[in-house]
Design a protein that fits this description.
five-stranded mixed beta sheet, about 30% helix, alpha+beta, BirA Bifunctional Protein, domain 2, 4 helices
Length: about 190
Amino acid sequence: MKYYFEDAKKPYTGSELVSHWIYKNTGILGDAIIAFAGSCNVDVSRMVDLEDVRNEDYIYSEQMLHFIIEIFGIPLEEGVLIQRLFTSILQDRINAECGELKVKRIGDDLFYRDTKKLSVSICTVSPTSILIHTGLNIIPDGAPVEAAGLKTDLGLTNIQTLATSCMRLLAEEWADTKRSTYKVRAVV
């Protein structure tokens, strides 16, 4: 799995959650995770979470750290497990940066002080791959729920370093998982 941090700020609208978006926008082909910072504004027409659609919810944040993951050749259920693994990696790294346990994981979401939502995340499937978007509020102004921000609430300002370390850890887990499947023999 390759990883890349895009320096340019760009908004996330939900239209990025399609097959080969990473390849088309970065030239990285294959299993990959990329990160970039920018606003987030996803209306109901771009939602893939059917509960959010039924509730006519929307996602908005003035500034988020966005991660997009694309992995080929696995089913949706494995994709959701990878999504949750990545959420755990984010939780561990953020708490390590803060020097205390400030962030709690519930499923694929992160919360600050148990009530303020720090993240949004979704995993879906395309005809060729699974796709994951995870966004962490940097500045949560305008969010439709009580929200926390990496900068505003947690005091974290080196967003690129945080993003790169989390992507590297996921890539290492992915490589080690693959290695573990290669080294065992079948039992009959």
